[in-house]
Amino acid sequence: MNAGPPARSPGSAPDPAASPAAGTELAGLTSAEAGERAARGAFLVVPVASVEQHGPHLPLSTDTDVAVALCARLARADPAAVIAPPLAYGSSGEHQAFPGTLSIGSEALELVLVELGRSATCTFAGVLLVSTHGGNAVAVRRAEQRLRAESRDVRAWLASWRGDAHAGRTETSLQLALDPRRVRLDRAERGNTRPVAELMPALRESSVQAVSPNGVLGDPAGASAAEGGALLAGLLADLLAAVRSWRAGESG
Ligand SMILES: [Zn+2]
How confident is the model at residue 234 (pLDDT cuts 50, 70, 90)? Predict the structure, then answer.
């Protein structure tokens, strides 16, 4: 497996690996081409993310950027993967106090994914949901279960990492690796650095703003493109392993 993109300094051009190879994006295919790809065993990958605040220094698209980049890398590694346009609206109610956040909530997301899965499986025998936003987890898992209960071959993969939770060092590093022009490093601020497990009761009862006025759960200090590249490589390895076991027919 590829070790991921090399470290790059802020201001350099976007990572060419972030652009998918020709013919891997569903939206660029004709209907007949999509049908041919499906008939030859292709599976559809749907990036599922969010439009939500990511502190004073990262764009609202951060989760979507990470999902799209991971799926593009998956398509480069596995020629059977066809990438759908991302579902950028997710369940982000906990961030609603911050301007720009666009959330459709967990119930609506679940329904969208169920209907999308039903439609997608009319063309593709296999459909993979790739979610990079923790707040989507319940809806994504429930949609996966419902679709599988309808005997559709749908799998969900949820990104997880050991670093800080939100708009901290981890996500800042990921964005620096993807495109440093998206990061306002001069505006980066430390947020609430207590472990998320400790903050969870307060997060569930109120909102992110209540525990972190600047919207950051973690600390962007120390973030780097090199660290982001390593994180992306780790996420891709996990995603590829999940795809392999799914395609090999293992249950999970
Ligand atoms: Zn995020």
Answer: very high
Q: Is the pLDDT of residue 1 over 50?
A: no
CA 54 / ligand 1 centre spacing (Å): 6
Buried b (16+ CB within 10 A) or exposed e, 62-96: bbbbbbbbbbbbbbbebebbbbbebbbbbbbbbbb
Grade residue 22 by pLDDT with cuts at 50, 70 and 90: low
Tokens of 231: 């994180």
User: CB atoms < 10 A from the CB of 195, how many?
Assistant: 11
Whole-number Å distance, alpha carbon 105 to ligand 1 midpoint, is 16
Kindly write down the DSSP assignment for every residue of 110-153, as one continuous string: HHHHHHHHHHHTTT-SEEEEEE--GGGHHHHHHHHHHHHHTT-E
Q: What is the pLDDT of residue 3?
A: 46
Domains of the chain: 22-245 (3.40.50.10310)
* Ligand 1 centroid distance, CA of 37 (Å): 32
Q: Are 177 and 232 in contact (CB under 8 A)?
A: yes
C-alpha 72 – ligand 1 centre gap (Å): 18
Q: How many Å lie between the centroid of ligand 1 and the Cα of residue 60?
A: 9
Pairing between β-strand 43-48 and β-strand 153-158 as defined by DSSP bridges:
unpaired
How confident is the model at residue 155, as a pLDDT? 98
